[in-house]
Amino acid sequence: MISSLRGFRDILPPESDRFARIEAAAREVFGLYGYRELRIPTLELKELFVKSTGDTTDIVEKEMYAFTDGGGREIANRPEGTPGVVRAYIEHNLGQTGRNAKFFYIGSMFRAERPQAGRFREFEQIGTEHIGNPTPAADAENISMLVRLLEKTGAEGCSVELNSLGCSECRKAYRGVLLAFLRERTEKLCDPCRGRLERNPLRALDCKTDAPWLKTEAPKLPLCPACLEHFDGVQRLLGAAGITYNVNPGLVRGLDYYTRTVFEVRSAALGSQDAVAGGGRYDDLVRSMGGPAAPAVGWAMGVDRLVMLLGDKLAPDKAPKAFVIALAKEAGDKAFELLTRMRDAQISADFSDFTLSLKSQLRSADKSGASFALLIGEDELKAGTVAVKPLRGNGEQFTIPAADAPSKIKEQLKGRVD
Ligand code: HAM
C-alpha cells in the first residue's frame, strides 16, 4: 500500500466542496473589484524565487522543492504566486494593455515546512496582485476586498493587522541603526538570526524566537514624510470602507520584497498557524526583476486555513434530492430513464444498484441523505407510475404518474429544508 507524502493530503468530500465554495465566493468578489484571473505555471526557474521572494527568507533558504531537470536547468515548485505574476507581467507587457493590471490566481503552492495543524507542504492560495498603482487607494482596495471576501464566506473573529515597513530609503537608514543595536546583543539572538544578521538584520523582527523581546527593546523604524503620508492615506481609506484594523509595529512579514504597507488577517481560533491571509506593497520588485518601474500591492489567503476555520458552517455535505430504486428485473431501464429525466429537470438524483434487494437499495437511499426515494416495482411498471417514499420527516408513501415525476417532485421539494 502506497500512501500520500507527509504534508501532502487528499481533500475529501465534503471538505472539497468547501474549497469550491470559497473559490466561487472569491471569483464573485474579484469580479466586483475588477480583478481578472491569471493562471501561472506551478514550476518556474528556481532563480525567479531566489531573486524575488529573497535568498535570506526561510521560504527560499530552507523550504523550496527544487530539482535539476533533464536539461540541467534548476527548477522549483512555486512556494508563492507573486513572483510568477510579476514574471508574467513583464514577459507579456501587461502594463501596456491600457487596462488595469489587476489579477487574481487560485492554486497550489509548495513549501517543505514541518507539517503541523494548519501547515501543509502543498496548500492552496487565493491571491491578488495589483501592479502599476502607487496610491493608498490600491492598498485600501486590496485590504477591504480581502475583508469583504472573508465576510462573504462567513468567517468571524478575524483581526486585520497593519504596518508600514517604509520605502527602501527609510529602510536603508534603519538597517544601519538596527544592525548596530543587534551587533551589541548577538548573544541574545537565536542561531538563524545570528547567522543572517549581516545579510538581513530586519528578519530578526519577524523571528518567532527573537521578535518578542525585540518588539519592546529594538529601535523603531522611522518613516520618511512620503511614507507617513501614504500610510495615513491607507488608514483613512480603510476607515471610509468601514474596515477595522490594528496598527501593529511588530508586523514584518517573512518575504523580502515588501515596501510600505504590510498586512495580515489573523484568527486566534486557528492556534499557532493563525495567519489566514497576508500581503503588502512591493514597489521595487517589478523593476528589480527587469521590468518597468511599476509599484504594486497584493495578498494571498491560505484556503486550507479558511476551510479549517469555517468547518461545516460553510457547506454541509450535499445530498441528492431523489434516490431512484428499481424493484423488478425489468424496471431497471425505466428507473434509469427516470433518473435522466430528473437530472434534466435540474433535480439532483442518484441510485445504487438496481439488481440489489429493496432493503439494500433503501439503505443506500437513506445513507445518501436524499429527501425522497422514487420506487419502480412491477405494479408501477405496469401502471406507468412511480411510488414516492419520503425519507425525511414522517410523510406517507404516495403514487404519481411516471411522466409527471419531475414536476411533482419539484412541487414537493418547494419550501422543504432537509
Ligand atoms: P504568505 O504570508 O507567505 O504570503 O502566505 C499567504 C498565506 O498562505 C498565509 O497567510 C497562510 O494562510 C497561507 N500559507 C502559507 N504557508 C502555508 C502552509 N505551509 N500551509 C498552509 N497555508 C499556508 C505570500 O505568499 C505572498 N505571496 C502574499 C502576497 C501577494 N504579497 C503580495 N502579494
Verbal overview:
The chain has 418 residues and is α+β, with helices and mostly antiparallel strands. The chain folds into two domains: 244 residues, Bira Bifunctional Protein, Domain 2 (BirA Bifunctional Protein, domain 2, 2-Layer Sandwich), CATH 3.30.930.10; 90 residues, Anticodon-binding domain (Rossmann fold). An eight-stranded mixed β-sheet has the order 1-5-6-11-10-9-7-8, sandwiched between helices. Strand 12, helix 12 and strand 13 form a beta-alpha-beta unit. Histidyl-adenosine monophosphate binds next to strand 6, strand 10, strand 11 and helix 11.
Provide key terms for this protein.
418 residues; binds histidyl-adenosine monophosphate; elongated; Rossmann fold; BirA Bifunctional Protein, domain 2; eight-stranded mixed sheet; 16 strands; 15 helices; alpha+beta
What is the strand content?
15-25%
Are there runs of 5+ residues with pLDDT below 50, and where?
none
Q: Roughly what is the average pLDDT, rounded to an integer?
A: 95
Strand order of the largest sheet: 1-5-6-11-10-9-7-8
What is the CATH fold-level name of the largest domain? Answer: BirA Bifunctional Protein, domain 2
CATH architecture of the largest domain: 2-Layer Sandwich
CATH class categorisation of the largest domain: Alpha Beta
The biggest beta sheet is recorded as: 8 strands, mixed
- Which value, in Å, is the CA radius of gyration? 28 Å
* Helical segment count: 15
Strands, count: 16
What compounds sit in this structure?
histidyl-adenosine monophosphate
CATH superfamily of the largest domain: Bira Bifunctional Protein, Domain 2
Give the % helix.
Answer: 25-40%
Backbone structural class:
alpha+beta
Shape, per Cα inertia axes? elongated
